[in-house]
Amino acid sequence: FLSQPYMHKLITTIIVMGLLVMSFVSCRQSKPQVDKLYVDSVIVANRDVLFSNPSKADSIFSQLQHEVTDSAEWYRLQLYRGTALFRGGKTQQGHQIFNQVEHWCNTHAGNDYLLGLMWNHRGNALLFMGNSRRAGQCYERAFTLLNHDPKSKDLIAATINLADNYMQAGHMPLAAERYRYALFLTDSLHDDTDRASICCGLGLVYMELENFNEAHHFFNIAARDVAQRSLQTQHFYHFSLGNCYYLQGRYNEALKSFKRALHIGQQLGNNYLTEVCRINLGEIYLMQDSLVQAQQQMQHTRHYLQRNGEMLSPENLFYVKSLLADLDIAQRKG
User: Fold this and answer.
1) What rounded mean pLDDT belongs to the chain?
2) Residue 14: pLDDT band with limits 50, 70, 90
3) Are 100 and 85 in contact (CB under 8 A)?
4) pLDDT in the model for residue 258
5) CB-CB contact of 79 with 102 (8 Å)
6) How many helices (H) and strands (E) does the chain have?
7) 52-111: per-residue pLDDT in tens?
8) CA 217 → CA 200, 213, 244, 247, 272, distances in Å?
9) Which of 58, 107, 200, 331 could form a disulfide with 84 if both were Cys (CB 3.0 to 4.6 A apart)?
10) From CA 119, how far away is CA 135, in angstroms rounded?
11) Per-residue pLDDT averaged across 292-306, rounded?
12) 137: closest CA among 165, 104, 100?
């Protein structure tokens, strides 16, 4: 069987993709416009739709653009349309929209804030495409542009994404520093919406350092209100906790967490988040010599590779194919 680091590498990549915080609400109060509040409410109401049904989200944001009169709000909606296009596989059109928003910000003074949001969305898109290095550069730009008074929820989102990127790159001290700054911001703004996600991130940092007591301390904090958060956040929590249990060798507990994450991925209608759970479940069943259960999970993986294998990096694709080969060998021996 493959050693734990292989599975861990794949899981870490997927975890970061699971926490694509998108700046769903802007809390700045300098322009209390009706347009802005209305746009905020629609974006929040469709945060899960953006992941489960990108084309529907694009249609909703497009319709709303006809109703707003403020140009900045029109371009903010355009950002979400770009992200929806990326999620729906229309990467070239997504890039064009991001370039359009960037150009408008650069040619209209006083829109550094919207420009910061653009870099955050662009970083998310690049991460979704597997380019974590360039995504990190975008998150750095977003953080710099948004990290000014008055602080906002959008800054929390950019800070979380930057911390995730540091963690993926193995820069644990920097990741911890940014996660703790995000926690400070949630306290300052009296907004607990992202607290569970931030605590999951800190849990993963301490998991990487093999300080499992501290890791579970933060997972326990996240557990207090994760059920009230978005399905995306719930998936991230259960998937991260399963990863921690796996690295501890607590495989039965890991199975429970990955099954819960699988169920939430199905609720989201997100094939990618669903299949990575099946892959992890399949490996654990294979390690436990439960070949029937492993086959049940991995047969979905075979179909997924045929349809969407290009979404995985070469390293992760090798890992999954090797896992399928291990299952075939075990079945022949059985």
Assistant:
1) 87
2) very low
3) no
4) 97
5) no
6) 17, 0
7) 899 999 999 999 999 988 999 999 999 999 999 998 889 999 999 999 999 999 999 999
8) 10, 6, 12, 16, 29
9) 58
10) 9
11) 89
12) 165
Torsion angles phi and psi, residue 253, rounded to 5: -70, -35
Q: Which of 289, 300, 296 is nearest to 265 (CA)?
A: 300
- 3-class SS string, 163-195: HHHHHHCCCHHHHHHHHHHHHHHHHHCCCCCCH
**What pLDDT is recorded for position 32?**
39
Instruction: Name the residue with tokens 């819960």.
Output: 260
- Mean pLDDT across the stretch 132-143? 95
Which tokens hold the place of 29? 């109060």
C-alpha distances in Å from residue 178, one per residue of 135, 240, 257: 16, 18, 26
CB count in 10 Å sphere of residue 107: 8
Q: For residue 88, give both structure tokens.
A: 């729906």
Burial class (CB in 10 A: 0-12, 13-18, 19+), 76: buried
Separation of alpha carbons 321 and 327, rounded Å: 10
CA 29 from chain center: how many Å? 27
Identify the residue with better confidence: 313 or 208. 208
Tokens of 213: 């007591």
Q: How far apart are CA 219 and CA 244, in angstroms?
A: 10
**The residue to which tokens 């300080």 are assigned:** 211
Share of the chain above pLDDT 90, in %: 66
